[in-house]
Specification:
This protein is mainly α and 94 residues long. The chain has helices spanning 5-13, 35-45, 53-56, 86-89. The two termini are 31 Å apart.
Length: 94
């Protein structure tokens, strides 16, 4: 997005509070001192979602089953490591 200088200053200045105003995220349920207790109370008041009976069954994933034709024609070509090899873990990047 490209803005002219005046449009940038205008949009930036809308995020600056006037003197005497305080940012509301530091008070009430969003304050750091009461956030844990407030979140716990809010979660108690939210009703649990009802899970439909057909969704309760565990979905079994078959990696060999094609999502289009529903046949077991998929072939594993390569398994990727979750972590880089040891020689790369110890390397320092600059």
């Amino acid at each position: 997005m490209k803005l002219t200088g005046m449009k940038f200053i205008r949009s930036f200045s809308q995020h600056i509070l006037p003197k005497g105003f305080t940012c509301i995220r530091h008070f009430g349920i969003l304050s750091n001192t009461s956030k844990a207790a407030a979140v716990a109370k809010i979660k108690e008041q939210i009703p649990p979602k009802a899970i439909p009976a057909n969704k309760k069954q565990a979905i079994v994933y078959n990696p060999k089953k094609c999502t289009c034709c529903k046949t077991e024609t998929m072939v594993t070509i390569e398994l990727l490591l979750r972590e880089p090899p040891a020689m790369l873990q110890n390397a320092k990047y600059h």
